[in-house]
């Protein structure tokens, strides 16, 4: 039984309405939570409107049981704000999905800590930062943790939950429970780990595939065929690169060690410089119509 310390999560504030923020906000609203989506200015809020409209169409097409009535009800539970103090005034949980820039996240949590009620739990959706990089800026170490969603939240519905040593176990458990309530398969991470579970597996896997192709050992399509046929996996690593797009891995590798920089150069020369950026540009390792 929950004590007074832990109130129910009814109202959720999402910071940032970009790729992931809009998905998190819409999914939470779709599963019955009152959601405020905050962004820095009116232009950013306006840019979120087509994203939400696109999600409504996607849910109708891809989410079993979605109807016009259920997506309309989700939209009705979702409002927008550019006033942080007003937006957080009744929030039980804040999920931050702003750009992956440590100082920006720290500043944002500092500002939020000044205006949020004591009850509010703070969470970051950061993919690559650890919650302990941010925790001291929040002013509430016991009520701060990471909840990491995947792109295309309505089908890739994992929520990796990771606290710091200072996160209260009760808060951690409450957020695990919340993740289930918003339709996610909760993945509790028991100790801080860069990359959580998913990227701890995926990044070395994708890197090994690139080593095979860039090193001249095997063609991308043959690497993919081997992986799919031998393991029964639906996608090979180069199909996954095409979904992610070439820019993110390039930007990471170009700042890495010698081997990573050689991979980046190969990707640039053979794909990026030719406009082959992945599915979004119509061609990457494969052609898309
Ligand atoms: P994005 O660039 O698409 O969106 C960022 C949004 O934050 C924009 O709407 C921007 O206006 C807003 N913003 C900027 N400064 C802000 C501030 N101070 N306060 C509030 N809003 C602000 O970024 P994204 O791809 O959605 O990524 C956001 C976070 O989610 C990152 O931490 C990233 O690591 C994480 N993430 C991304 C993915 C992905 O596939 N894109 C997957 C999992 C996690």
Question: Secondary-structure blueprint of this entry?
Answer:
Layout: E1 11-15, H1 19-30, E2 34-38, H2 42-62, H3 68-76, E3 78-81, H4 84-88, E4 93-96, H5 102-115, E5 121-124, H6 135-138, E6 144-149, E7 158-163, H7 169-181, E8 185-189, H8 198-214, H9 220-231, H10 237-244, H11 247-253, H12 258-270
Parallel strand pairs: 1-2, 1-4, 2-3, 4-5, 5-6, 7-8
Antiparallel strand pairs: 6-7
Nicotinamide-adenine-dinucleotide binds at residues 15-21, 38-40, 44, 97-100, 104, 108, 125-127, 148-149, 151.
Topology, number of strands = 8
Low-pLDDT sequence parts: none
Q: What structural category do the secondary elements indicate? A: alpha/beta
Shape: globular
| Chain-averaged pLDDT | 95
- Reading side by side through the largest sheet, how are the strands ordered? 3-2-1-4-5-6-7-8
CA-atom Rg in angstroms: 20 Å
The largest sheet is: 8 strands, mixed
> Which oligomeric form is depicted?
single chain
What's the level 1 CATH class of the largest domain? Alpha Beta
């Amino acid at each position: 039984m929950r004590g007074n310390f832990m109130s129910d999560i009814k109202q959720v504030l999402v910071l940032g309405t970009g790729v992931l923020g809009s998905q998190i906000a819409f999914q939470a609203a779709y599963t019955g939570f009152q959601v405020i989506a905050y962004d820095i200015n009116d232009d950013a809020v306006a840019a979120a409107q087509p994203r939400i409209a696109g999600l409504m169409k996607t849910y109708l097409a891809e989410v079993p049981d979605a109807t016009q009535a259920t997506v309309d009800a989700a939209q009705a539970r979702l409002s927008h704000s550019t006033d942080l103090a007003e937006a957080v005034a009744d929030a039980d949980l804040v999920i931050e999905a702003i750009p992956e820039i440590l100082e920006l996240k720290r500043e944002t949590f500092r500002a939020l800590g000044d205006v949020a009620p004591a009850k509010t739990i703070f969470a970051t959706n950061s993919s690559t930062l650890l919650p302990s990089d941010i925790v001291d800026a929040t002013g509430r170490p016991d009520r701060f943790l990471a909840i990491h969603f995947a792109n295309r939240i309505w089908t890739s519905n994992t929520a990796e939950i990771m606290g710091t040593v200072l996160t209260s176990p009760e808060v951690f458990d409450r957020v695990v429970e919340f993740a289930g309530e918003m339709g996610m398969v909760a993945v509790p991470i028991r100790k801080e780990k860069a990359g959580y579970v998913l990227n701890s597996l995926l990044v070395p896997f994708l890197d090994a595939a690139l080593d095979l192709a860039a090193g001249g050992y095997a063609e991308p399509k043959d690497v993919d065929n081997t992986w799919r046929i031998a393991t029964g996996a639906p996608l090979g690593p180069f199909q996954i690169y095409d979904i992610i797009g070439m820019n993110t891995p390039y930007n990471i590798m170009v700042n890495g060690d010698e081997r990573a920089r050689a991979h980046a150069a190969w990707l640039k020369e053979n794909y990026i410089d030719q406009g082959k950026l992945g599915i979004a540009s119509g061609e990457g390792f494969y052609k898309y119509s």
